[in-house]
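Many introductory courses stop at the sequence. We go one step further.
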Amino acid sequence: MKEYLIYKDEKSSKFWQIEVDGKKQIVTFGKIDNPGQSKIKEFDSAEEAKKDAEKKIVAKINKGYHKKKLATKVKAYLKKNNK
């Protein structure tokens, strides 16, 4: 499981990515166009790692982050409509 989210506003342009590989969870975050920093966390089970990742994804979306595909579509729409 791997999810890449972005957040952009007038002051910020950042990304947050989470990847679950078995019992291991890797979170990478930082400014867009920079490699960012990663943190690795080991869980007791793969199910626990996945469940925790899903909670973190929901929390980020609630803070205004969104999936990269959506951002690309919005950007194309704004460009097309001169906004």
